[in-house]
Structures are given as C-alpha cells and as structure tokens.
Amino acid sequence: MHSKLLDELNENGYIVIEDFLTPEEVDSLFQAGRALCLEAPQTNRKIFSTIKAEDAQGKELYFMESGDKVRYFFEKGAVGEEGQLLVDPMIALNKVGHALHVEHPVFNAITFSNRVREICWQLNYNRPAVCQSMYIYKNPGVGGEVTPHQDSWFLHTDPNSAVGFWLALEDCTLQNGCLQFIKGSHKSGVHRRYLRNPDKEATELMVYDRAAPIYPQSSFTPMQVSKGTCILIHGNVVHKSEPNRSQKSRHAYTFHVIETENNVKYSEDNWLQAPKDKPFPVLFERKD
Predict the structure, then answer these.
(1) Which fold is adopted by the domain 4-266?
(2) In the chain, N or C: fewer CB atoms in 10 Å?
C-alpha cells in the first residue's frame, strides 16, 4: 500500500499534523498530566537528566523497571540533596513514564484511538504495538534541555520500525523549548545505542556503545507548533529541544509504536523490555 504519509516520513523524517487532538482532548490530557504532579511520591524522588552521566537513570532500576508502570522523574533543579522539593510540586516533574498508555484511562483512550490506528495503517504497519509512553512537562525555568538523539538509540528494532507520536498539549515556541529536527537525518542509520550493560559486575546497568555524535546547531529546524498538533517522529531522525527559558510550561504526551511482524526483531539489549506476561499492547493486526 502506498501513502503520502509514508512518503513524507521517509523524505523528511518527521510529519506535522495540526489539530490532531480536539481542544477537549488537549484539556483532558493536560488536566491528567497536572493531576500526576500531585500523585508523585513524596520520598525517594528520582531525577531524570539526559546531560550528566553520573546522575544518569542508567544506574537506577527505578528507570529500567518502569516499562509496565507509572513512575515519576523529577527535574534536576527541583530536588535537594536530601530529596526535598525545592520548587512547587506542579513544576517539579520532568516526566512520567513509561506505561501511561496502559495504566491510565485518559492516555489509553488517545493512544488506542482510531486516529492513531489509521496513521499506523497508512505507515504500512502490519502488527503495530505501543512499547512506551511519557508525559513530558518541560516546566518554566527548570525544564532542562533534551540533547540531540535518535529514538532508535533507546528503542532499537532490526530493521528500524519505531515511530514516535508526539502530542503538543501547549503551544510550543523557541522560548519554551519546542522540538528541533535535522531534516533527512534518518537516512544515515543509527548513530549510537543505549544498551543493557553486558558487564554484569559493573555498577552501571546501562551504557552507550560509543560517544555522542556532534551535530551542528545550524542543521536543526525548530518546529513551533500549536497545542493539539501531533508530530510523527521517525526512529532514526535526529532531534532535540533546548531548555525552557520562558515563563510558560510546554507539556506534551508522547508514545512510540514498533512493528512486531515481518521478521522485525526488538533488540534484547534495549533498556525497555516487556515482562513475559505483559507483551507490548497491539493496535491492530492487518489481515491479507
């Protein structure tokens, strides 16, 4: 089957679909995200940062075991050395993941909507499954940068099949850290991998297999989009977001779809592994 959607994704590495969500859906997801702030644990607060390796979640089973749970990751500047909150709880979280699409009814309804299934159908998936989901806060002042990466570093399949659905729940601007892409960069393969450490004696449970590539700042195209927009993200396209330097948050809900047929193999050394009794939930199975 041939589709314009697939052509555009293969050409650019991303697609912007405006008004993917209704205003009511945006509000419903946004309110659910705010409610999660108040449900976050008061003790044992975990920080999520993509910059400093020594604080990396890779040392923490809390992160690695979050694939089938709803877990809370705080901004680096939001938690003191004793685990105390230094900021208002409503702006303390970096993200919540990674099973909102299964465990939370509001996020489940959007993730498994006919709109999402239709897009996966047009992208030629045969048996697409949702492997993970996140609510990302990108709060004013504390919302840190997300360094340039390809999603395939983390959600590797052979051949590559991951596509991200990134749903803007607030307007995204240069000031509050909108997504930025290197157009066409998905055509250059997977640049590095984030792997379960083969050295079982090591303290680090997760390791990168090589150094971070350097991507020139001038290569990135910022995607300033209004709330309700969906950005489809090819697993191999390089993207990032700058820190939120504004007075406004930049909430988003995102999830990833992978192919589970056609001899596509989900890598056994990815950080995220489905429990044996809970395989990744499938959106549909295409029948010939």
Answers:
(1) Jelly Rolls (2.60.120)
(2) C
